[in-house]
Amino acid sequence: MRRDQEEGTAMPEQPVPVPVERLAFEMPPVHEDPAEERAHRKERLAGALRLLGRLGYEDGVAGHVSVRDPEFADCYWVNPFGRAFARLGPEDLLLVDGDGRVVRGGRRVNQLAFAVHAAVHRARPEVAAVVRTQAPYGRALACLGELLAPVSQEACAFYEDHALMDEFLGAEDPVRVARALGPYKALILRNRGLLTVGGSVDAAVWWFIAAERAAQVQLIARAAGKPVLIDHRGAVATRERFGGDLAAWASYQPLWQTVADGGGTVASTS
Q1: What is the CATH topology of the domain spanning 31-260?
Q2: 246-252-256 Cα angle (round to 5)
Q3: What PANTHER family does the entry give (predicted)?
C-alpha cells in the first residue's frame, strides 16, 4: 500500500496537457483601392513621425520619413521642412516627386535630404518606406565606424542584414548612400547615424527604433566590459525568426497604439 493511502491523503490528479496553439495576431491590411492604400500610408507615416518626435529622434530641421505613393510612379509622401514631428497629421504631409518637386502640399521640402530618400526608393522598388533621422546611440555607434554586433537577441535581427558606409561625406551623396545600403534593411552612415527601410512604414520605423536600441545596448556593454558575442549559427537562426518585415510590423503595433488616437506617452531610451 502506498504511503499516501496509508495516511489517508489523496494524491493530486495529473494535470491535463493544454494544447499549444500557434500565436495568432492581426496581419497587415491589404487594400485593393489605391486611394485607400494612400490614406492608410499617410496615416501611418504621420503617426510614425509623432512617435519618433516623442522618442526624441529629431534634431532641429533634420530627419525625414518617406513612403512611396501606391499609384503615382516616383512620387513619395514625406514630412515638410521645419515642422515638428510631434505636431504632424496626414494633412500636413507633402507629395514629392523623385526630383524633389512638391506635387501636393503647401510647404517646402528639404531637397538635399529628400534626395537620399528618392535614391533609395529608386534603387529598392520593393521598399515602401525609408527612415533617416537622428538618434543618439545610432550616431554614437556611427562615430566609431562599427556595425551592430550580435551581442543580444534583438541585435541579431540585423546580423548580416545591415551595412556600414565607411566614409564621411560633407553632404550625403544620394547614389552612394543607396549603393552602400544595397539589399539590406539598415545602413550605418559613419559619423552621421542610421537609415532603415521596410516594406511598410511600420516595419521601417520599427527597424530604426530597434537599431537605435541595439546600438545603445552594445555601447553600454562595451563600456562595462567585453561583450560576449552570439555565435554565427545562433545569430542567423535568430535573424531568420525575428528579422523579417512581418515580425517588425507586429513588434511595432504596441507603439502604434500609443499614437493612433493622439494619446499615451512613450519613454525615450536616451
Answers
A1: L-fuculose-1-phosphate Aldolase (3.40.225)
A2: 135
A3: ADDUCIN (PTHR10672), PROTEIN HU-LI TAI SHAO (PTHR10672:SF3)
